[in-house]
Amino acid sequence: MRHRSTGPLVAATAAVLTAALAACGTDAPAGTTATGPAQAELLDVVSSTNVYGAVAQAVGGDLVEVTSLIDDPSADPHSYETTPADAAAVAGADVVVFNGGGYDDFMTRLVESAGGEPKVIDVVALSGLAPAEDAEEHAGEEHAGEEHAGEEEGHAHGSFNEHVWYSLPTVQALAGRLATDMGAADPANAATFTANAERFSTQVGELITEAGAVATAKPGARVAVTEPVPGYLLQAAGLTDVTPEAFTEAVEEDTDPPAAALAETLTLFGPPEPVAALIVNAQTTTPSTDQVRAAAQTGGVPVVEFTETLPEGTTDYPTWMGAQIDALSAALNGN
């Protein structure tokens, strides 16, 4: 992901936790309200994006304060510029979670330079999806003997797809790891974190079932993509990505695709056998992706929008991902 259609990058600022005391009298003791003792101190969790922030919130509930450094669809994790407030948030965190795999390298630099001793979760390393050499490079903060989260392959064309939040088994594994790390930081509430993680994992399991239903209804259906962002979910849905690798790699690397790759991609939307759908990254537009989208619309091929971060107004991972699966299913079924 590189070009953004929504404007310049916006540096996210760290959230500031404030406490408000009830003003029923002027002689209330410090640390209390009119209704009882002050709320217990919350665990501080810092995530690179609001996708991982949403998972952390689901596991931590009202026992955690979550700060997502990227909480704006116009901010690009590949080139995000950190602020002193970001460094302070990471330094004071109990738990830090980020994607890894080169997607949000700014978090690695923050963890290394900010100080503090948070529990650090690199989701690519946790997933077990990266090739062995990459997994070793990004596994510095993982527990020894960590189980692989799933058995999916990488991007259909063979190169590693770092967008692991679209791997539903990986998200389930992340919830379990968050519960473990939160419980270690706050043992008194460990059982609550575990119960929340299990509830969340059940919801994600329902999404796996929904993706499987797409695979059953449209086994092996051919689709095109502008970027490999939702690749793991497309595999779970039993779909076949037939986009030329040279095209998607160029879009992801912010370069113009070779003319031959663009021409080949454009043929996917016409006779004799157009693809069943075009999946676009709604947060990335280039002249090439605009051209491909126009070709799909001209050819009557449905276009399905996916995103890299939670859209404005959405804070719940299962709701967000479920809506995308529903949109994909509707497109494939001609609805």
Description:
Residues 137-155 have a biased composition (Basic and acidic residues). With 335 residues, the protein is an alpha/beta fold. The protein folds into 2 domains: 32-208, Nitrogenase molybdenum iron protein domain (Rossmann fold); 210-332, Rossmann fold (3-Layer(aba) Sandwich). It contains 12 helices and 10 strands. It has helices spanning 50-60, 84-91, 105-114, 123-127, 132-138, 168-185, 190-217, 231-236, 245-252, 259-266, 287-298, 317-332, and strands at residues 32-33, 36-37, 43-49, 64-70, 95-98, 119-122, 222-225, 240-241, 277-281, 303-306. It has a 4-stranded parallel beta sheet with strand order 4-3-5-6, with helices on both faces. A 4-stranded parallel beta sheet has the order 8-7-9-10, sandwiched between helices. A two-stranded antiparallel ribbon has the order 1-2. Helix 1 crosses helix 7 (190-217), helix 2 (84-91) packs across helix 3 (105-114) and helix 7 packs parallel to helix 12. The longest helix is centred in the middle third of the chain and has 28 residues, at 190-217. The radius of gyration is 21 Å and the shape is globular. The two termini are 29 Å apart.
